[in-house]
Amino acid sequence: MPLKIYNSQTKQKEPFDPLNPPQVGIYVCGVTVYDSCHIGHARSMIVFDVMVRLLRFKGFQVTYVRNFTDIDDKIIARARQEEVDPKTLAEKYIQEFEDDMKVLGVLTPDFEPRATLHIPEIIGLVQKLVDQKAAYMVEGDVFFAVEKFSAYGALSHRTLEEMQAGARIEVDPRKHHPMDFALWKKGKPGEPVWDSPWGPGRPGWHIECSAMSSRYLGETFDIHGGGKDLIFPHHENELAQSMAVSCKPLARYWIHNGFVTIQGEKMSKSLGNFLTIQEMVRRFYPEAIRLLLLSRHYRSPLDYSDQAMQEAQMGLNRFYTLLKDLEHPEDRLQNKGNEPLVSERIKEAEEAVGRFKENFQQALEDDFNTAQAIGHMYELTRQLNRTMDTVRPKELKGLADPFNRAAGLLKQYGQLLGILTRPPQDFLDQEKTRLLNKKGLSAETIERLIAERNQARKEKDWARADGLRERLVEMNILLKDSPRGTIWQIEE
RNA sequence: GGCGGCAUAGCCAAGUGGCUAAGGCAGCGGUCUGCAAAACCGUUAUUCACCGGUUCGAGUCCGGUUGCCGCCUCCA
Question: Could you say which architecture CATH assigns to the domain A320-422?
Fold first, then answer.
């Protein structure tokens, strides 16, 4: 099946047709490192992570570049506030970002270039723009002249007139056109500066991505991505700068992910309504965070709530429980199936697995529809649980083949989403420990109460048994009695 | 003020021209259980914000109305 991608520039789903197959170049705008990252950033990183995984799965040789903006106004302002060197501040948040990505299981890109390490390329690019009169210098600042680039606005689908109509900010009177933007900023006292033909200064916000993408991927590459909020002005400006120099398209496909919202409002640092990744991973299992973020289509807004997060955690537990059961169906609790194993059942399971294999891939290939793909995972889960529940325990062996295939597929496809990467029993044990610690409970206490309850049950002292179970329920402990003993589970 | 997007069950959510509108959560009924829990089965949208149009046929395309959100300013 060919991959289809929604291109923000054309506003259509298009068949993916890379420039030099099987090579694929992808550039994603990373973060400006002046503060901790929140789950909105996590969504973007995870969404593109999955895209890269899928491309590789489909046999493409992907070169994945994700930059750090490590010099800009906000970094300088924040550094001043904290009385540290901007470089030190940037370094600190780069490290934190790397840690966040690692915890979330986001693959490291092939290149993670930083603006400050590409100053010569940036200056070279600005110089070219100045040489061809697409940019002009005023008092040590260099601006890009948007009127010199006729396609300006093509990406964000608006014209210069429309943008001016809505202008809400004061315009720097030195600009030839209100929408002109800085390529190079003159340094003020105390700011980090680099020497340039226009005097000491630093790069503007957009130019670094033009410089770094061409350095690592060439003048035209396949996919350029980032959050929706980057379409304008960042990507529009990048496109203008790059194309003004190369006269070639910058990217063949522009992909933009939707925002994470909280109570319907965009999560952002300026609104202060954000949840940091660090906070999230303290509270929830990283794979559950991935599952939540991938269970909505990447272009739609995703409204975060603790309830949604808990549902994702439950879903993840369900998948891991299924995997464990598929490996040891004979250990499954309360298997009271009474249907003799007949070829019908085997066929049913095999068909379910076959359907899943096809459907899952098809969903991802249709513009990375992870939400639909995850739906198929739930469907398979239900179907296999049904099979295990309806067949006589002793006859489960006959289903070993489809069960192994299903487990293998779930793990393989889980890899594409970055979930189900752990041995199921380990995961379930760890999850239990995590929750126990969170509740400040010990396994010994719980097991002692369970032993007492089982004694009461043996004596058919139901009142006492139920009383003990009540006490455990108050501790958020749920019991599952099985012929092989009582199993307990802790609730979030 | 300009531009764009979205509106699918109690909640979340997939679905962009045609078989019975995925999936999850919650609810209800059932199987199982001493009672539970878990799992499973059944059930929960003759209908996709509203009005009109195109079409043999529309949640899906077109026009209008209402509501929400985003971008136009730093932003994943």
Answer: Up-down Bundle (1.20)
